[in-house]
Structures are given as C-alpha cells and as structure tokens.
Task: structure prediction
Amino acid sequence: MDKALQTMINNMPEKTGKSLEEWKKILAKKAFTKHSEGVNFLKQEHGVTHGFANTIVTLSKSEDHSAEDLVSNQYKGKEALFPIYEKLLSVIKPFGNDITITPKKASVSVIRKRQFVLIKPATKTRIDLGLKLPEVPTSGRLGNSGPFGTMCTHRVQLNSLEDIDKELIEWMHRAYEMAG
Result:
C-alpha cells in the first residue's frame, strides 16, 4: 500500500474520530449510487474533510478494491508506464507533509487543500498529468485540460521518465503552492 495512504489510514481515528473500519460500517448502512454522495454525506453529516471523505468512500466501495488494487488495475496492460507514476509521486511527496494521495478507479488524485495534480494512464504509452494552475496560460506542452474538464486547468502528456524534467517539476510545485 502507498505509504502516504497508509499514514492517512493510521491518522484517521485522530483526525476524523473513527477508524476506517468504523467509517466503512457507517457507509455500509447507506445506499449511495454515486461516489460524490458518500463524500458529501461524510463532509456534511460528520464534518470529515474532503481528503479523508474521498479516501474513506473509495476504500469502502469494495474490499477487493484497496488503494493498491486500484493503482495496479490502472496499469494492467500499461506496465511500462508504472515507473513514470512512481517517479511522479517521488517528486511530489517532498513538496510538503500535507499531501493526500487518493487512488480512484481510473486515476490518482494528489490533494493539498484541493486537488492540484491528477495522474491518469491514458493509453498504453502515455500518462496524462492534470495540473490545477488557474490563470496560467497554455503554452507548448502545457496544454489545455482536455478530457479532465474542470478537474484540472492544464494537461501535460508524459511518455517517458525524461518527460519529468525541471520545467514539469516547477509546474507541479506551483500547483501545490496554489492549492494551499
């Protein structure tokens, strides 16, 4: 399991008042049809922050969909991209100890107070990296958000480890700063 996710789960009782297992039992009594309904329920009815609510709902959906399973399923048939994913996380994590990494079915959200990076294996040869950089113009490889819509303001297409260069790291760090 991702170290940051495990830390989040370990901190859950202190930060939310209940363990992950207790939250799973609460959610099991509800019949939410959408992920966002569960997140909103935890935020509004229990005062859980968005990052914890999102993680709780994601990990509550099914025992066979742990965060690790969600990530490994994203890279089935796209294994050559997994080193790029790992490198992105190794670059992002040192930005601060207030980062939450939340795997979903098709992507991984990286959140500070708000999501600032979205990592999605788009094809067998490309990761789409979404960035939240409001008011930064698109230019060159810093393209428009494309399929990410309003979740991100920009998208960078990554095909190799070499694409994680100084310029990309600066964009990610700037997105991190703006999400604080």
Summary: The mean pLDDT is 90.
